[in-house]
Amino acid sequence: MKILHTSDWHLGASIEGKNRIDEQLATINEIAKIADEKNVDVILFAGDAFVNPNMPSYADHLFEKALIKLSNNGNRAIVAISGNNDIPERFVACKELALKQNCFLFNNLNTDFDEENICKDKSIKLTDYGKGFIELSKGDDKIVVALMPYPAFFGNEQNKTREEALVPKIKRLLELGAIGFKEDSFNIILAHFYMKNNTEPTDPYFEIPIEAIPNEADYVALGHVHAECCVDEERHIYYSGGTVSLYYQTHKQKYSVTVFETDGHKIKNNQKIRLTSPKTMLKITANDYTDAVTKLQNTDATYVRLMMKQLKKDEFSKLKKEFSSLTNISMLPARLKKPNKNLQTALNDEKIFVEFFKNEYNKEPSDKLIKCYKDLIKGDK
Ligand SMILES: [Mn+2]
User: Fold this and answer.
1) Is there a single domain that holds both residue 228 and residue 254?
2) Does 203 score more than 90 pLDDT?
3) Rounded to the nearest 5°, which phi and psi values hold at 137?
4) 223 CA distance to ligand 1 middle (Å)
5) Domain count of the chain?
6) Model-level pTM?
7) Are 243 and 275 in contact (CB under 8 A)?
8) What is the 344 CA–ligand 1 centroid distance (Å)?
9) 126 C-alpha to ligand 1 centroid (Å)
10) How confident is the model at residue 296 (pLDDT cuts 50, 70, 90)?
11) How many Å lie between the centroid of ligand 1 and the Cα of residue 96?
């Protein structure tokens, strides 16, 4: 069977108050095109469909559109779990309609399907299920997916040590799903949690150790970490990475989906396929106006946050006018401009004001203005 693994779509993500619907639809369409070209049978979605629990309502519609587009009228199955950014109830709001499209949505380990709505006339179909797992078959080919949506109890366990709380609990839930694993099926764990990897710093409390993963798993499809990465190559434990940038970063992040074929208990033709639709959010530091212009001319990032050491008022508007990619300008704090801390602290309010005025207007402030400033600072006027 051919599988596509993706996660962290973060639908509803915006940039400086503007929606990114076009970008997100383009990304969904691009994933659908890959799925078509590669004859993918099953899409595994490993959580975080939405940007955050306060997502705008159009994000729900984007999610429905995505399920319709990607499932190709139910000729392709989708198995999807909720992540920590999804409201669990909202994630499964359209689950009965989704079932009619061969899409299976989970926010916990319950597999309480309305039998009437299950697709029965498609080449890929649901052939078995139980608490924490589902089995899908295409002819003699079978996969079993053990489900591990982001556990709601994560947040309540802060005061206990991981040894007594989190890890044993997760292990037990994973073992529950693994009951569905069969000798003649390709066995998958679909989970949204943090495992140690080579791209993000360790999170000692929430980290799930490899020992918690049942040995019978042939592939572990993870979501939560936004960059594609491998947790364990030998055991096929992977993060597909997300499909949208949410923060201004100092380097351009790459986005992709993972596609592979099952071969008994092995995987073959494991490929990362690059996505071109996700836009880049880049953070650029510049010394002054000229430096900013050069750097902005040399980047193809769609959204840029400029961190300026100095910038005059008219230069600010000139940059905004000239570069549509410029979505945010921030001034670096003075102490970063001048590393000489002693000098800064030695300046009193008046001197700081005089320095600021000279810097901004290229002349000394009048005595009257300085007095006015000092009165304001004291709160006299
Ligand atoms: Mn997440």
Assistant:
1) yes
2) no
3) -130, 150
4) 7
5) 3
6) 0.84
7) yes
8) 42
9) 27
10) very high
11) 24
